[in-house]
């Protein structure tokens, strides 16, 4: 084989190898982008929804009306009875986003009225730290959601029963000035009558 023929063979091998690499890269990018689309359609695997859309935000907040710290038995518009616990900013530790002792006790001691069973738990978290950067407020709201979700699971509730929505850096008290305290988290236990 002449030197010229060897050079041609080496060049053609390089071109074929380059084409193969390009094809593999395209396949990888297609697979990666397709998996993200599928994940978005199925929802998050950890059960936590992060809402950055103002429509979702408004819908999420308006559904919960105005609240102050405490636990109460309420009723939704469709007649579903619920037990609600509202936790405000000063009930969370700044470092690890966990509830303080009083808040943990209140969450642990939620009583489902006799004759009712638990249908699902809705957990919505906010951050009202106005002086903090937006990324930190998302982190605070997410940390609070995961902390409360962990406590609910530790208290014996199933992860599948807990729907979590993180509304992030949107101060609840600014949208509803009649609320006396900036709500940081709302835990709503939706009940069903036992037959």
How would you explain this protein's 3D organization?
The protein is of the alpha/beta class and 195 residues long. The protein folds into two domains: 42 residues; 146 residues, OmpA-like domain (60s Ribosomal Protein L30, Chain: A). The longest helix is centred in the N-terminal third of the chain and has 40 residues. 22% of the residues are buried.
Instruction: Report how far the terminal alpha carbons are from each other.
Output: 89 Å
Question: Largest sheet, order of strands side by side?
Answer: 1-5-4-6-3-2
Order of helices and strands: HEHEEHEHEHE
Helical residue percent band = 40-55%
Mean pLDDT: 72
List the helices and strands and how they pair.
Layout (H helix, E strand, L loop, with lengths): L2 H40 L5 E3 L3 H11 L5 E6 L5 E8 L12 H8 L7 E10 L8 H21 L7 E5 L5 H4 L7 E11 L2
Parallel strand pairs: 1-5, 4-5
Antiparallel strand pairs: 2-3, 3-6, 4-6
């Amino acid at each position: 084989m002449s030197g010229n023929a060897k050079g041609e063979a080496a060049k053609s091998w390089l071109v074929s190898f380059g084409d193969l690499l390009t094809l593999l890269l395209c396949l990888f990018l297609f697979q990666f982008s397709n998996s993200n689309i599928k994940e978005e359609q199925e929802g998050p695997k950890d059960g936590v929804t992060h809402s950055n859309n103002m429509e979702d935000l408004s819908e999420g907040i308006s559904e919960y009306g105005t609240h102050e710290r405490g636990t109460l038995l309420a009723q939704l518009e469709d007649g579903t009875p619920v037990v609600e616990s509202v936790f405000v900013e000063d009930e969370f530790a700044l470092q690890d986003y966990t509830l303080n002792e009083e808040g943990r006790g209140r969450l642990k001691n939620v009583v489902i009225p006799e004759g009712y069973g638990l249908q699902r738990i809705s957990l919505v978290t906010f951050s009202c730290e106005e002086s903090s950067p937006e990324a930190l407020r998302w982190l605070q709201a997410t940390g609070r959601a995961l902390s409360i979700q962990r406590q609910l699971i530790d208290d014996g509730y199933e992860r599948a029963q807990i729907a979590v929505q993180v509304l992030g850096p949107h101060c609840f008290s600014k949208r509803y000035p009649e609320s006396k305290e900036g709500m940081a988290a709302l835990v709503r236990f939706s009940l069903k009558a036992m037959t």
